[in-house]
Write a structure and sequence with these properties.
Layout (H helix, E strand, L loop, with lengths): L5 E11 L10 E5 L1 H9 L2 E6 L2 E7 L4 H12 L3 E8 L4 H4 L8 E6 L3 E4 L4 E4 L2 E4 L7 E6 H4 L9 E7 L3 E9 L9 E3 L8 E7 L5 E6 L5 E2 L10 E3 L4 H4 L4 E4 L11 E2 L8 E8 L1
Parallel strand pairs: 1-11, 6-10, 8-11, 12-20
Antiparallel strand pairs: 1-4, 2-5, 3-4, 5-10, 6-9, 7-8, 12-15, 12-16, 13-17, 14-15, 17-18, 19-20
């Protein structure tokens, strides 16, 4: 039996508040050409998992000696990964500038913080590039990998994303002349919808618009809020009549549909939803 000397060298993990699990499964870390050559030449193995990877090295010497040797023979003192994104809506549901084109870059030399479990959370830098073949780049320097080794830990480099918050807009197109008395959308927690406002949508049809106005609601993979469209009797206050539910459980936003809010900060965006009655 061949004796294996594989030891975990470091890990990379991506997290995103949009996803129910918190794990960002749509980003993939691919060693670039030079790093891939180093991995093959010096016997490294990648163990990928849903939101990142672990790198293992096969060496009888110390990691420090191995890295010194690699740096001397290759003139390179870091590993570099291209970050590929497999979700076409990623920028839409992530707190990133809405019209931004470029690459997200990370470096182990630019940590946001080091927590006490050997995890280093990395700072995000947005590089403007008119043409980018990948979503992002990650550089991990040998010296930063070695920082946790004396404590017996393999360093984990962590990157985090936050879900975008948008103004929710419900457009009701009353094609079937459904009777609506003083319609409103049920309030949930601190979210209250303004409206209705009579508007004309792009198709030329009339609609009733309700918006969350200045309350921006965080987008999520699975619905976290359930709103109903209700019709209130004009005499409800006098006879305690219950409002009539017109639509129970309004849809949550489709993350691929984003609208720019007029006369607002360019990164304040809306989630328009069109519902036919």
């Amino acid at each position: 039996m061949i004796q294996s000397n594989y030891i975990k060298t470091f890990g990379i993990a991506a997290y995103h508040t949009f996803f129910d699990s918190g794990k960002c499964n749509c980003l993939h870390f691919i060693p670039n050409h030079n790093t891939d050559k180093i991995f093959k030449k010096f016997g490294f193995k990648i163990n990928p998992f849903s939101n990142g990877l672990d790198l293992y090295s096969n060496t009888k010497s110390s990691l420090s000696d191995l890295f010194n040797y690699i740096a001397q023979t290759t003139q390179q003192n870091y590993f570099e990964f291209d970050i590929k994104c497999t979700n076409p809506n990623f920028i839409l549901f992530t707190t990133l500038p809405i019209n931004w084109i470029g690459a997200v870059t990370y470096s182990s030399q630019d940590p946001k913080n080091l927590n006490n479990e050997g995890k280093i959370v990395l700072n995000q830098t947005l590089e403007n590039k008119p043409v980018s073949t990948h979503f992002g780049l990650l550089k991990i320097y040998f010296e930063d990998i070695l920082k946790e080794q004396p404590f017996g830990n393999a360093t984990v480099f962590e990157i985090n994303f936050t879900a975008r918050a948008t103004q929710w807009q419900y457009y009701f197109i009353n094609k079937n002349a459904v009777q609506l008395n003083n319609p409103s959308i049920t309030k949930k927690e601190n979210i209250q919808f303004d409206g209705p406002q009579n508007v004309t949508i792009q198709t030329g049809e009339s609609a009733l618009l309700f918006t969350s106005n200045k309350t921006y609601i965080t987008l999520s993979e699975k619905p976290k809020y359930k709103f109903d469209l209700i019709s209130n009797s004009s005499s409800a206050n006098q006879n305690n009549a219950k409002p009539k539910v017109i639509i129970k459980g309004l849809p949550n936003p489709d993350v691929s549909r984003i609208g720019i809010i007029e006369n607002s900060d360019p990164n304040h965006v809306a989630s328009p939803m069109y519902i036919y009655l």
